[in-house]
Amino acid sequence: MAAGDLEALVRVTAPGYVGETPPEIAFGITQTPVGPLALAATARGVVACSFENEHVVFARISREIGSFIGPDPRRLDPVRRELDAYFSGRLRAFTTPVDLRLATPFARTVLQMTMAVPYGSVTTHQEIAERIGRPQALRAVSNALAADPVCVIVPCHRAIEAPGLLGGYAGGAAAKEHLLRLEGAL
Prior knowledge:
By secondary structure, the chain is of the alpha/beta class. It has 7 helices and 6 strands, in the order αβββαβααβααβα.
């Protein structure tokens, strides 16, 4: 999304935004080796780091969190720097706070479990289901991982379907494989 497009989108969805007042929700795009990521940050932390189309992410945030959304490099640049460091192999653990409000309560539990999976390691969907005390909830765990609103930072890519079977990923199979290779997990 070009800067002009973002400004036009902001004017339509947040007509009170004039650029001088920092928005309630910082929004922007960052380019990565696995494709563009739509980023959004609230006062609580990163609420979106998504492979989805930025218009879809923007609309969801506007609908579910708030409509005072706009560019705010002061809040997004630290996230971008950590993502750049991660993709260049210099960062193993993100320090940026995460805001999981876009996830359901069940999905938050699943995603918090993936945050405990160390860099360079993988776990399976079944192992996550067992760790959260819901061994029969394999499909629900898989759906929660697929709906991760804070991809890469919340490392749902470290959850594989089964040994030898990577499974799906919001950014596609090639992106998941790239991330796991970067971390030395493959």
